[in-house]
Amino acid sequence: MKTVNEGRKVSVMELIMQEVLKKAEVLIEALPYIQKFNRKIIVVKYGGSAMSNEELQKNVIKDVTLLKLVGFKPIIVHGGGKEISRWVEKTGKEAAFVKGLRVTDEETMEIAEMVLGKVNKRLVTMVEELGVKAIGISGKDGGLLRVNKKYADGEDIGFVGEVRRVTPKLLFDLLEKDYLPIVAPVGLGDDFATYNINADDAACAIAKAVGADKLVFLTDIEGLYRDINDKSSFISRITASGAEELITEGLIGGGMLPKLNNCTTAIREGVNRVHILDGRIPHCLLLEIFTNEGIGTAIIRDEE
After folding, report:
1. Which of 83, 113, 238, 245 is the most exposed place for a label (fewest CB within 10 A)?
2. pTM for the whole structure
3. Residue range 49-82, pLDDT digits in tens
4. Strand, coil or helix: what is 37?
5. Cβ atoms 258, 202 nearer than 8 A
6. What pLDDT shows up at residue 2?
7. If you average pLDDT over residues 108-136, what whole number do you get?
8. Residue 160 CA to its chain's centroid (Å)
9. Exposed, middle or buried by CB within 10 Å (0-12, 13-18, 19+), for 224?
C-alpha cells in the first residue's frame, strides 16, 4: 500500500495512527467551545423530519446527551405535529389549519396531549438508555407555561395557547439536580383548561425565561437564504438587526417567517445566540456548536 505523495508503503499501524490523530484534532477543535459553554443552558427545539426518522432521532438524542456530559445544561422542547395529525386522522377527523395553526377542538386537544405525552416519554427513555438522567414534563407541570387563548386573525381556533408567562423554577430545580428536562408544549389557561402551544413559541419563551446562552431550532431546511432559489446566497451568520431587515424586505416567507421572528425576539430579550439547523443532517448539533465552520445559520447579537 502506498500513499499518493510519498510513494512508499504505509503500515497498518501508521494508518491507525492517522485516524487517531484525526480524532484528536476534532477533540482539540472542540475544546475551546466546551470550555466556553461549560455550565451554560442550551434550549433545543426538536421537531420536523428529524422526529419521524428513527435513526435521526437517535442521533439528535446522542448529540444532546453528549452536550450534557461535556458540561452544557440542555433543555429539550419537542413538537409532535405530524404524529398528532396521524392520530387525528385515525379517529376519522381531518386535521385543519388556519394561518399555520392547528384548529384544536376539545377532542383534538385530548389527542394532542396523549400523543405529546407518548413522544415525551419515548425521548426520556432514549436519553436514559445513554446513561443520563432525564425527566419529561409538560408546560402544565409546576405552572411552567401559562397561556392566553390564541386567535388566528380574529378567528377562534379552539384550544390553542399563546405563552403569557413562564415560571422556570421547576426547570432550574431539575437542572440543579443534574436532570435533562424534556418539555411537551402544552400549557394552562386562566380557566385551567389545557391548551396546545406551538413548539417554536414554547422553546423561545422558555429560552428567554431561563436565560439560555443558546437556542437551537432543528428544522427541515439548511438555514437562511437571501434568495431561497439561489443556494449561493446561504447565510451562515447574521445579526438580529440583519435578520429583521430580511423580514422587512420581504425576503422571508412561509413557515420560516414566524420562526425567524421568534429568533430575533429571543436575541433581543437576552438569549446570546440562536441557531437554525437542518435536523435531517446527522449530528448537526455537534457540527454547529463544536466546529469552527458550523453548518447552519447563527443569529447573533448586534454588538458581536
Report:
1. 245
2. 0.87
3. 777 778 888 889 999 998 998 889 999 999 887 8
4. coil
5. no
6. 45
7. 94
8. 21
9. buried
